Give the backbone structure.
Amino acid sequence: MTSGPAISRRRLLAGGLAAGAGLAVGGLGGYGFAREGQPVDPQSGVEPFYGVHQAGIATAAQERIQFAAFDVLTARRDELQALLRSWTSAAVLMTGGQPVGNPAGDPNAPPSDTGEALGLGPARLTLTFGFGPSLFGSSGPDPFGLGPLRPAALADLPQFAHDELDPAISGGDLCVQACAEDPQVAFHAIRELARIGRGTVAVRWSQLGFGRTSSTTAAQATPRNLQGFLDGTNNVHGDDQPTMDASVWVAASDDPPWMAGGTYLVSRRIRMRIEAWDRASLADQQATIGRTKLSGAPLTGTAEHDTVDLTKVGSDGKPVIPLGAHIRLAAPATNGGIRLLRRGYSFTDGIDSQTGQLDGGLFFVCFQRDPRTGFVPVQTRLAGSDALNEYIVHVGGGLFAIPPGIAAGGYIGETLFG
Amino acid sequence: MTPRRSLALAFAATLLVAACAGPAVAPATSSSAPVEQSTGPQASQATAADSVATYRAYIEMNTDLLVTRTKAFAAAVEAGKVADAKALYAAAREPYERIEPVAETFGDLDPAIDARINDVPAGGTFTGFHRIEEALWSKNSTAGMTPIARKLVTDVTQLQTLVKTVDLDPATIANGAVGLLNEVSASKITGEEDRYSHTDLWDFEANVIGAQEAWTAVKPLVVSRAADLAATIDQGFSAVLDALQPFQRGDGYVLFTTLTPTDTQTLSQLIDALADPLSQVAAIVVTAQ
C-alpha cells in the first residue's frame, strides 16, 4: 500500500495537498489543533492506536460501528503477513485522521485514498482486528499451519436453541471492527482496508450500526435500544481495571502465549421482530426485559442503577422479576458471576423483502477472556428460556480471537505470525 | 382431510349456543353506541366468564382432535406408509396450530411437539412433528421414526389432559390471538415452519382461524365498548382469509415454495394490519372485568 502523507484530512481539504503537506501535524488529529479556542467537536477526538491492548474494547463506546468479516483468499503466509502490516500502517493513519494515500495525485492512476472522509476528523476512530476459527483451519485446510496455535478458547460456538444463523452473514477468517463518532469515518476505514486487501482477502459480510446501545465507561449515559429500553446498564466498564483483568483481557498465564493481552470477540446480528414488539403491551414488554421502560429501573427498584433483586416476591406470590425476564437470565448472579463487556449497536438494513417488515435490531458485540466461560453459558441460558426470544432471532454472528495491541513499529498479529 | 372451514363453522354454532345460554347481554347494534351504554359490572363479569368458557371449549375440542389425528398420523408412520403419513401430516398439525399459545404455557411440551431443527440446542433431542416431517420429505422414509411417533402421541395426549387446567381470562385469550398472528409473521410467512414439506400455508390458516376463534370468544366484551375496533378486527380477519383463498387447492393449499415475494409481503402486511388493532383488545377486556 501507499503510505499516506502525515497530514490531517481536514487540513488537506482546506489547503489542498501541496499546501497541506507543509503543515503536517503528524498523528495528532489536526482538527482540535487547527481551531484552537473552539469547543471540541466529536470529529476531533483521537483514540490512541498503539497500546498493550487493541483500541475499541475498553474505549468509551463511539456512536457508530462498521464491522466487517473477511475471507482470506491467499494460501501464502507471507502475503497474509504483508497484508497485516499494510492494514496496520493504514490503521495508524486513519485513526489519526489522515488519508491513507493521495486522493488527488497522478491523474492517470486511481486515487490512493478513496476520499470520502476528506474534511472529516479522526472522530475517535478505533480499528480492532481479530482472527476467526477458520483461519486456524477449523473448517477446512490449514494453509498457514496455524492449527497448533489455535487457542482452546477459540472453540467453535455450539448451536444455541432457536439460532437461525445465515452462513452468508456469519463467521469469517478475519474481522475488523471500526468504531467512530462519524459513520462515514467508520465506513471509509473498512472500505480502505477492503481495497488494500483486494485479491488477498474478500469481505464476507459487513454490518453498519447506527447507534450505540452500550456504555463502556462509567461516565457514559446508558443509551436505548430499538425496543425503547435502556440497554447495558450493568455493563463492564473499560475503566474498571480489576474487572477488565478478571473478565476481559487474556492473562499472560492463559494459553496460548500469543494471546496475552488480547481478548475474544463474539458478535451476533440479532434481528428484532419489531412489529410484534410494537404490539406487545407495556406490561408484557417490561416483564420481558425485567425493567421499567421509562426509567430503566429494575422492576424491584425505582432508579436505573438500583440493585436488581432477583429474590423479591410480589403479593401474588410470584417473583417480581419474572423467571423468564431477560435481566434475570443475563445477570451475573444467575451465571456464576460471568461478566461480558458488551459493545452493541442498533442497526437497520431496510426491510425484509419476504415480509415487508423492518429488518432491524441489535448488532451485539461482546468481549471476554474466554467465550467457553463467557458468552457460551450465558447464551445457552438465554436461548433456553429468555422471554425476549419471542421478539428476537439471532441471524448471524462470529467468533474472533483479538490479539494484543502493539507498539510503534509492530504490526497487528505479530505475536501469532512472528 | 375435513373441509377447511367446517370446524370453524361448527364452532361458531357452539359459540352461539353458549352465548344464548349465558346471562343476557345486549349486543351493540350500532358503532355509535356510547361507552356508558355498556352493561353493568355484574353482567360484564358474567360475560367474561362466558368468554373463558367458550374459549376453553374450543381448546378442548382442538386437543381432542389433535389426539385423534396424531394417532392416525403416527399409525401410518409406524406402519411405514410414507405416502399416507405425508397426506396426514398437515391436517394433524392443524388443531395444534389453532391453539399453540396455550400449548406454549406448558414448558417443554411445545418444543417436544413442535420444535424446528434450529430450535434444538447442541446436545438436545429433536422430536415431534418436524422431526418426522424431515424423515418423510427429506429421506422419503419412516426409518427410525417409530419411537418419535409414539412419543408424539404421548405428548399430545398429555397436552389434552393439561389444557383442562390452564388458567384463562379474557386478556390472556386476546393476547393469545395476537400471539398466533405473531407466529404467522415469524415463521409461517417465511417458510421456516414446514421447511421440508412446504405446507406452511396450512399452519398459516390454522393460526389465523385459531386467532379468529379467540377473538370471537372475547368480542362480546368489546363490541359494546369499542364497536369501531371490533369492526376493524372483523374486517381484518376477512381480509386475511380472503387473501389466502387464491392459494387454496382442494382441501389444502399450494406449497409455500410457489409463493412470490409479493405474495408473502401482501399476506404479511395483512397480518400486521390485523394484529395491531387486535393488540388493543386486552386493555379493553381488562377494563370490562
User: Anything to note?
Assistant: The first strand of chain B starts at residue 248 and ends at 249.
